[in-house]
TrEMBL record:
Stored InterPro entries: FAM65_N (IPR031780), RIPOR3 (IPR026136)
Pfam families (UniProt xref): PL48
Annotated PANTHER family: PROTEIN KINASE PKN/PRK1, EFFECTOR, RIPOR FAMILY MEMBER 3
Protein family per UniProt: Belongs to the RIPOR family.
Organism: Origma solitaria
Ranges for domain FAM65 N-terminal: 2-277
Name the record gives this protein: RIPR3 protein
């Protein structure tokens, strides 16, 4: 192989933290999903470039004010602007490194994916050929190559997941028109992989809503979607309102995303969330 397992891992010194239990050694997901990884990579790179453009625009604006202030000799304001400019420049360099690291990881992932596809195709070809000692030895070697490429792809997926940032999810309440009545109590349960958020809310007499929690931080996951379950609490009984899944592919953006999720099939009860990446 042109890029062996040892060389892949030696080039990527980052180790997944404890938040990524499913990606630690000994608990790897042995089912790479190249199409899903491609979608996440493209969304992630687009979002990072949006952040880069926004901070570059801020730097250009500050630099213009910096020149004007220098001419006017307002020293205190000048030095404050100079400090802001250096801070934005450092952040831009950090973003540029982040983007280059993500691109490096994805390039290595694509190489391993192509190597695995090639080894898989050759394995199928040899399995159809007459059984000889040479063909059996080739099949054993090809099987080993497929396994190693699969392992490398899983490892790179774990390393890439470390660079996905955080989703700050805010609870904005339920929308139900006539379905929501004063005194009604609801429980919302959200899951992303092993991460969970359970919160309870009540409809007040003035139609406002109170919830015991308002915000939760989720670590993005390459393989999992948000699972949302809403139940109505009636004394000791609970009534299931609905269970839905929500893809996070559109959350990788600089602006907070207002999300409205249909909890029931007819959309009579909706859940309003705000997601900031």
């Amino acid at each position: 192989k042109s890029l062996s397992r040892s060389s892949v891992r030696s080039r990527m010194s980052l180790k997944p933290p404890k938040a990524y239990n499913s990606l630690q050694k000994g608990a790897l997901i042995w089912d790479p999903k190249p199409l899903q990884v491609k979608k996440i990579f493209e969304a992630l790179k687009k979002g990072l470039n949006e952040y880069l453009e926004a901070h570059q625009a801020e730097l250009d604006y500050l630099s213009g004010r910096h020149k004007d202030t220098k001419r006017n000799s307002r020293l205190a304001f000048y030095y404050d602007l100079d400090k802001q400019i250096r801070s934005v420049e450092r952040y831009i360099r950090k973003l540029e490194f982040h983007i280059s690291k993500v691109e490096e990881l994805y390039e290595a992932y694509c190489i391993q994916c192509r190597l695995r596809d090639g080894a898989t195709n050759m394995k199928q070809a040899f399995s159809l050929s007459p059984a000889t000692k040479a063909s059996r030895e080739s099949l054993v070697e090809l099987y080993k190559n497929v396994q190693e490429c699969t392992e490398d792809m899983c490892f790179i997926e774990g390393a890439l997941e470390v660079h996905l940032g955080e989703f700050h999810v805010k609870m904005k309440g339920l929308v139900g028109f006539a379905r929501l009545c004063p005194g009604d109590q609801y429980e919302v349960f959200m899951r992303l992989g092993r991460q969970k958020w359970r919160l309870k809310g009540k409809i007040e007499t003035d139609d406002s809503q109170t919830w015991d929690e308002e915000e939760k931080i989720f670590i993005p996951n390459l393989h999992e979607k948000f699972e949302i379950k809403v139940t109505e609490l009636r004394g000791l009984a609970t009534i299931l309102v609905g269970v839905v899944t929500c893809d996070s592919i559109n959350f990788f953006t600089t602006k907070p995303q207002a999300i409205i999720v249909d909890i029931t099939e007819l959309g009579t009860i909706k859940l309003r969330l705000e997601v900031l990446w």
